[in-house]
Amino acid sequence: MNAPATTSMPRALPAEHRQRLMQIAREVSFPEGTRLFEEGAHAGRFWIIRTGTVDLDMRVPGRRAAVIESLGHNELVGWSWLFPPYTWHLGAEAASPLRAYEFDATTVRTICEEDPAFGRTVARWVGEVVAHRLQAARVRLLDLYAPYGSGTLR
């Protein structure tokens, strides 16, 4: 799935903020099937996908976890690290071999506090991601569980 223009990291952050963020990135790889995080666990890091895909999922009582959205190149994996109490609202699993940039959440929050312009930019980007994911979750859950689906045409 391609990220909307406002949620893809290169489009969402100005060059100087993108460069500052990438200075603290660590390159990581995960095999297909690796759980990056579980709903309700501590959110201490986040990722930007280089290659591969990640499925975001939500626990549904009495059923298998529902895949809410699949993320790909340049998309942010995880937003719960920015908002107290810093616990994941969804789960995430590598749907294919994954290469990503990993960021320590505490370090990024500290930079956001020290540089208000950087912090505003990151907060706006993450807020747009949250809004997009909320809408995607709504549509997907209606498709899965509502009697007539979401009513959207695809």
Order of helices and strands: HHEEEEEEEEHH
**Which structural class fits the helix and strand makeup?**
alpha+beta
Please state the average pLDDT score: 88
Named CATH topology: Jelly Rolls
User: Which CATH class is shown?
Assistant: Mainly Beta
Number of domains: 1
Q: How are the strands of the largest sheet arranged? A: 1-8-3-6
Radius of gyration, taken over Cα atoms and rounded to an integer in Å: 16 Å
Q: Major beta sheet, specifics? A: 4 strands, antiparallel
**CATH architecture verdict:** Sandwich
Q: Which percent band covers the strand fraction?
A: 25-35%
Counted by DSSP, the helix tally is 4
Explained architecture:
It holds the Pfam family cNMP_binding. InterPro entries: cNMP-bd_dom (IPR000595), cNMP-bd_dom_sf (IPR018490), RmlC-like_jellyroll (IPR014710). This protein has helices at 9-12, 15-22, 105-114, 116-145; strands spanning 26-30, 35-37, 45-51, 54-58, 66-71, 76-77, 91-94, 98-104. With 154 residues, it is an alpha+beta fold. It has a single domain (9-140), classed as Jelly Rolls (Sandwich), CATH 2.60.120. The protein has a four-stranded antiparallel beta sheet with strand order 1-8-3-6.
